[in-house]
Write a structure and sequence with these properties.
- Helix 1 packs antiparallel against helix 2.
- 15% of the residues are buried.
- Helices cover 30% and strands 21% of the residues.
């Protein structure tokens, strides 16, 4: 251990402080395109919950009324598991529109050349339908416009959009 290891950040001058991303967060090392997880994966646990729920109900019916370890709670658990499994099955939408498709649809919708943009996946409604939330800025050094577009992740339909003159003051960040 050397003397530099004992220094706290307060003891260092601003020129000596170095920030680095951990290796697992360094996006420059990624060699393949990122594939966003598909909501259809919800169907797998849905089927498992339904099968386990059916097994609980079968075990209760086979065990009879005089069983010590198997009582009405096992039936209730089986019913709850089946209901949760059905919810998972209906919420397992296929995410047909990835973030690139959603960004393209949002760019067409806002009507200005897009510079920086960001995509976030959310879910709407009781059925948890996947929806992309796209935040876009116009393509100027200091963006003059910004917009928010909601794009359906299943069929690519534009759900809603909003554009405005950019109210943010970025003059302090210039040269």
């Amino acid at each position: 251990m050397n003397a530099e290891d004992d220094l706290s950040p307060e003891d260092l001058s601003p020129e000596e402080v170095r920030d680095a991303l951990p290796a697992d967060l360094d996006t420059t090392a990624i060699e393949t395109p990122y594939l966003f997880p598909n909501n259809s994966r919800r169907r797998i646990p849905g089927v498992l919950y339904i099968l386990i729920g059916i097994a609980c109900i079968v075990v209760r019916s086979v065990a009879g009324d005089d069983a010590v370890l198997v009582n009405g709670g096992v039936t209730v658990a089986g019913i709850v598991l089946i209901v949760v499994g059905l919810y998972h099955l209906q919420g397992g939408w296929d995410l047909a529109f990835d973030e690139e498709h959603a960004l393209q649809a949002a760019t067409r919708q806002v009507g200005f050349p897009v510079g920086h943009a960001s995509a976030q996946l959310g879910w709407r409604g009781v059925r948890s339908r996947p929806t992309w939330r796209i935040l876009l800025y116009s393509n100027e050094p200091t963006p003059e416009q910004r917009g928010l577009v909601l794009v359906d992740g299943v069929d690519g339909e534009i759900i809603d959009h909003f554009t405005e003159k950019n109210p943010e003051d970025w003059t302090a960040l210039q040269g």
